[in-house]
Amino acid sequence: MSLITVERVPTREELIDRARELIPLLRRNAEQTEKESKVPDENMSALRDAGLLRLSTPRQWGGWELSMRHQVEILCELGRGCPSTGWIAANHAASVDLVMLMPEAGLQEIYGDNPDTVMLSAASLDPALRADRVDGGLKVNGRFPYASGCELSDWAFLAWVPVYDNGEQTGVANLMAPPTDLRIEYTWKVAGLLGTGTHAMVAEDLFVPDRFVQFASLKADGEAESPVPATVLIKGNLHSLSSLVGGARGALDVVREKLEEHKPLAFSTYSRAIDSLSVQQEFAEATHLIDTGMLHMLAVADGFDAVPEGEEATPAERARLRMHMVTSLERCREAMQRLLDLAGTSGFAQTNPVQRYWRDLEIGSRHTALNRPMIFEDYARSLLGIGAPVSLLF
């Protein structure tokens, strides 16, 4: 049994308030976050102190075990302050669901008396990736190209690693290891979400004991069966989405503040842009689009909450929920274009937070698991019943 006891789970309102109270801190540290390509220790300590690293953690291990709706509401507030920090908190919450697939003995060691231990998850298509069976566990070699938070996480969930025994593949496994046991390659040099530090990790003769291994044998046809339920994977995508929707709300906050400071409308008869009917309409449209994105996001959360515990959402339902995630992002991206128009050229100044929110949203919304064309194709196939999904994991 866990050594952790939870006296009282904070209410939804309490946790949302805690997240909102962190927004000024996260915004103040946003430039540092981006410059260092890492969420600052001050941000992580604040998340820990506020209990916001326990959203998805089961109560057995000292967490809050919240519904998906409540989780995304809270993560959205963090993204509103800093999308990179929100993304790390979201990646952690999603990774916890994956970690819970591990053997009980491993979970005991992972959590001990620390319900705030920070997780990351990483998968790889590296053809050289493999784990060889050795006494007491697996020896792993290979590269994991995208590992958000690899410099600040306590544990890494390494997914879908091919397992070999005497040179023959016998299955695939999910593994747990401290990121400090892997070599980090500083590869995350992109235009947005820089603070996530999504660098590559390389395993070089990494020994993983059996207590940190979840193994799935090959099927009769020789294909590898995923050791992770598809519903769990898609829930993880929703976690990430929530931080991006939060980023759109953060940009809306900044533009509104500028308008309320009576910013002039250059080369017009308006000394205050806020008095312009066209500006008012553009702001209203942006607000409505973000609200629409929020509604789609919450509809997905409610869809997951409706799935009975221990069961999988049907393939048709998974396709529908993923389509709602795409629509949520599309509405937020449309809103961001209107906000950039309202911010004007000054919105692209490096000192203006609007451009950072914009870049973060553009990069994050291109995540492979939120890939619009592929999700559309899966959805169409599901509606028409004309074949299996083209997405391999969902």
From TrEMBL:
Q: Which Gene3D superfamilies match?
A: Acyl-CoA dehydrogenase/oxidase, N-terminal domain (1.10.540.10), Butyryl-CoA Dehydrogenase, subunit A, domain 2 (2.40.110.10), Butyryl-CoA Dehydrogenase, subunit A, domain 3 (1.20.140.10)
Signal sequence: where? Answer: none
Asked if the keyword Oxidoreductase belongs to this entry, the reply reads yes
Acyl-CoA dehydrogenase/oxidase N-terminal domain span:
26-94
Q: Which PANTHER family match?
A: FLAVIN-DEPENDENT MONOOXYGENASE, OXYGENASE SUBUNIT HSAA, MEDIUM-CHAIN SPECIFIC ACYL-COA DEHYDROGENASE, MITOCHONDRIAL-RELATED
Give a Pfam family name: Acyl-CoA_dh_N
Family label? Belongs to the HpaH/HsaA monooxygenase family.
Q: Where is the Acyl-CoA dehydrogenase C-terminal domain?
A: 244-371
Q: What is this protein called?
A: Acyl-CoA dehydrogenase family protein
Per UniProt, the keywords (alphabetical) are: Oxidoreductase
